[in-house]
Structure prediction request, 399 residues.
Amino acid sequence: MNDSEVKKVHQALDSFQIETPSWGFADTGTRFGKFLQDAAAIDIKDKLADAGQVHAFTGFCPTVAVHILWDFPEDQSPSEIAKLAQKYGVRIGAINPNLFQDQIYKYGSICNRDQSARAAAIDHLLASADLATQIGSELIAIWLADGSNYPGQANIRWRKSAMVDALHKLHEKLNPNQQMLVEYKPFEPAFYHTDLGDWGMAYIVCKEVGPKARVLVDTGHHYASQNIEQIVAWLLDTGMLGGFHFNDRRYADDDLTFASIDPYQAFRIFHEILYFDWETGHTPRIPYMIDQSHIDKPKIEAMIQTAVIAQELYAKAALVDHEKLAKHQKANEQIDAEECLRSAFFSDIRPVVLEWRQRHNVPMDPLAAFRESGYEARVAKERKLRRADLGLVGSGSYA
Ligand code: RM4
Ligand code: MN
Ligand code: MN
Prediction:
């Protein structure tokens, strides 16, 4: 690697940050049950403390996404939670409203034909905007579980207009610095139709809702052979890319570790972003967020591993020779163009990443350093006792 390549990678890494999800530190599972871990976070304080560890050992995970119903208990004010984050060296990032858990949402939230369910959902969205403003969060990330299970059950067009109407109300509540990120998903929990089934639907809804709405790409929410980097390229070109939820999938919404199944796909996504950046001279502010459910991996280690994997792939993507690539593309030299990607992807960028860590005063091997710190064993002991005190007994049962 020559000096200018090294510089390019350093520059890219300096601007690369990843947001961790509060729910990724707690016990989560599949619909069949949960396997509990003593060290898993019990409450928001634990989640922020654990996120603080990830940031301390990696140096580029300074914000934490939160889920309203799971993370804001009634006896704690939002500003207390923001202060708590500060205490652990992190900030609150995206706010995620919860429109899927309550019994009233059996047939949907903002797309429900039942006026009272819809009104409750809209109230919750507006309350989420207030909360975001109160704690200085600029992002509201919306994932709807809305959809239907059987053909004929739903008037799909009616539901679309109800959705646009509700999201428009939220949009009007946002201040100029805030954005709403609209996430799509082809199926689950609904198995016949999902009201926001793909990026095109999310794009149309954002356009109808207003300029503060953008599309959120969850890498796990695509059909098996879908070309995600093309979606990303189109969203970049239209100024509609709102951010990412990172995870990987083998079958459906598996929530596996980002790039664990297909690292080349993750690399190609980063490449499209950096290529856009080079070509347009415009660096979009892209919130990169992890959205994973570590069912059986230790939570904090899994989060550090994910962040490091993403950082390495981003560094590799930064190594692509854009001038050369553009030249080969223009001349239809497909083999040479492809080689531009392959040679960056297969380069060993770890020495540059190590240099970056040294410059930023973070451990050379974040995972090993975290393990040596003994944090996990310490909190496991304390949280196990606290769980017993609180009378929290886990259950792995499905029915
Ligand atoms: C969904 C989606 C959302 C996440 C929920 C819990 O599949 O990815 O982003 O908040 O799961
Ligand atoms: Mn997601
Ligand atoms: Mn998901």
Observations:
- The mean pLDDT is 96.
- Residues 115-134 form the longest helix (20 residues).
- Residues 96, 143, 183, 185, 218, 245, 253, 291 surround beta-L-rhamnopyranose (ligand 1) (CB under 6 Å).
- The radius of gyration is 21 Å.
